[in-house]
Amino acid sequence: MTSYRQVLAVPGMAPLLSMSLLARTAITASVMALTMYVVLGLDMSYAAAGGVAAAMTAGMALGGPLLGRMIDWRGPRIVLRVTVVLQVVFWLSVPIMPYGILLVAAFAAGLLLVPASLVTRQAIAAMTTAGQRRAAFALESVQGELSYMVGPPIVILCAAKVSPGVVAWGAAIVAGGAGIALLNPPLRAEDEAEADTAGRPRRREWLGPDMIAVLVMAFGVTMLLSGTDLAIVATLEEAGQVSWAAVVVAVYGVASIVGGLVYGALPRPLPTWLLLGLLGLATIPAGLAHDWPWLCVAGVGAGLLAAPTLSTVADAVSRLAPASVRGEATGLQSSALSAGFALGSPIVGGAIDLSVPAGGFAAAGLAGLAAALIGCLLSRHPPARTRSPLSDLGLAGAPDRAPAPDLDPPGAGARSGTSRRSSTASR
């Protein structure tokens, strides 16, 4: 645990992670809060509630690169302030909005959601050394699991026992975003200060095969995870044990947290494509389980690889992107994660409808394997006249803060059918 103590000892890191956890937990809860509000507060169907959740998720997916580019241009504090104010307006207005207006407003709120994860990931890259970064991103990925395990269950409990109101969750988002704005963490390391005056590189200079490989694998891992959630529910529904779904999901989450912490403490990184491939292989056999105890056993094997895979994706993006465009690159990462969440459930759901619940685990696992294969092939295809600095690492990391074309370095955040990882992609 020495590596984690070193990370938390970095000035400003512990407060940043605390505020980020608050914001991300509230963001994770917000989609579920809107769902419960539409069903219980407006007395409408689950299809209508799903429409609002889908609108907000679509806004989050499209807003990532936009907010990231704004952060590159104007810095984190002003972007956080603007999004905090807009969130205040949205969440205070939700109780008086008719459904049609709420649908449009939810999309806008997702588009301009407080960019807690974007700022946190950029700050981690700027505030840590190469030796600390893997442990720092492991902590960041564990945050996503914690936010899921805490946020949605509290929303459901409060909606059932107290009120389906949503203002409190908006207040938590605002508090977390305002806290990060007050901290105003640095997004450039001291040796990257010149990036602000050197001008933005053209997109084709940094959005090359290596970065595309990372984004494909980001899409693949969240598609796998969201599909796994649906397959768990389908399997337990067929067995008449759907009430145990929360236990199975909790086992997955705890295993992921343990896996993330163990991986962050390892002396050497593993390639992203290898971790994602192993996660896909570990997911497919879960289809052999037909009741909740065996699903829990399967969940331990797959869960141990979830957070490590997500952390290597974030680490790779931070290393591949030049400092002056790191916000936009991190926004693209968030969009890829959100797109995977959005498409994982319907694709796996189609596989389940055409076969059996076990087919859902197979479809999810194969999606992860396909993304891992594409990522591996892209990362091992260096551009002309130069060798990819991460080709030997599978995008898992390198000692430099950003890859240099002429160097060849040696070998580095919602699990429910409606909200698991769909908000941790706000991860």
Q: Can you describe this structure?
A:
The chain has 427 residues and is mainly alpha-helical. It has a single domain (12-189, 204-426), classed as Up-down Bundle (Growth Hormone, Chain: A), CATH 1.20.1250.20. It is built from 15 helices and no strands. The radius of gyration is 20 Å and the shape is globular. The model is unreliable at 384-420 and 422-427 (pLDDT under 50).
Provide a compact summary of the structure.
The protein is mostly helical and 427 residues long. The chain contains 15 helices and no strands.
Topology record:
Blueprint: H1 2-9, H2 13-41, H3 46-74, H4 76-93, H5 99-111, H6 116-127, H7 130-161, H8 167-183, H9 203-206, H10 209-238, H11 245-265, H12 272-283, H13 292-320, H14 326-354, H15 357-379
The secondary structure category is mainly alpha
How many runs of DSSP E, i.e. beta strands? 0
Q: State the helical fraction.
A: over 70%
Oligomer: single chain
Sheet of most strands: none
Give the termini separation: 23 Å
The CATH homologous superfamily is named MFS general substrate transporter like domains
Gyration radius (Cα, Å) is 20 Å
CATH architecture, please? Up-down Bundle
Q: Write down the domain tally.
A: 1
